Amino acid sequence: MSAPSSMPSTRGDRTRFELSLAVEPESVTRARHAAVDLAREVDASEEEVALAVSEAVSNSVVHAFRDREPGTVEVTADVRNGRLIVTVDDDGDGMSPDLDHSGLGLGLALISRLADEVTFSSSPSGTTVSMAFAIGRDADASEMTEEAGGTA
Amino acid sequence: MTIALQVEVELRDGVAFVTAAGEIDLSNADRLSAALCSSTSADSDGIVVDLRAVPFMDSSGLAALLNCARELDPPLATVVGEGSPVARLFGLASISSQVPVFTDLAEAETAVRGAPDLAG
Fold this sequence. Notes:
The complex is a heterodimer of chains A (152) and B (120). Chain A is of the alpha+beta class and 152 residues long. Chain A contains 4 helices and 7 strands. Residues 5-13 and 143-152 of chain A have low confidence and may be disordered. Chain B is α/β, with parallel strands linked by helices and 120 residues long. Chain B has 4 helices and 5 strands; from the N terminus they run ββαβαβαβα. The chains are: A alpha+beta (152), B alpha/beta (120). Chains A and B meet through α1, α2 and α3 of A and α2, α3 and β5 of B.
């Protein structure tokens, strides 16, 4: 298993980070916390970023490496064109149904509802999920109009 | 800052109260599952899962709850903070028909004690 490393950096007005993480459950927590820190800094919705990144990295950890040793998952974030862009990229086997796993299959559906724009790319050499989130006033408006239900 | 997960189980008058505090994700959702399983082995008539001190949970925690609700006999209800990220997750996942969700602990307890088939 490759050792995880991180290279957070700030360049002028472009705030970003790059994480290279081992494919293990603890990487979900680490990636989420890094993304939330950046979301807070650029005034994106911490709640939406947290859940979407957690789901995307969980997907890589659970589904990407089935019949071989786990590889790595790269998590990068950047602010471009007024949006926070978070990309989760693994070098696994790509997305396919996993009948052995007892999860809910909710991850991708949740990501689609949380991010303003999502791009999925999957091949036998890996899966990439790119998520865009509004920053500033747009993030606040998005959060306020979202359903808050589910309680009795 | 990581908020380590703590899960406690207390049996009161036949109902098991599972209280979680801290973030729940893939790295620790199995601890919630284990607590739920121990609740049923404690001969409980129902389970109330208190998630009001959980500032974050993803579908890994949701899977632990739903798998418990589907597989176990005792009725199960959850308690979440009003407007919390966990409440929003439940809303996004539309799971309230499978796991009843409350914002008040007493209401959840009443529901569990009075509805043997609550968990469906």
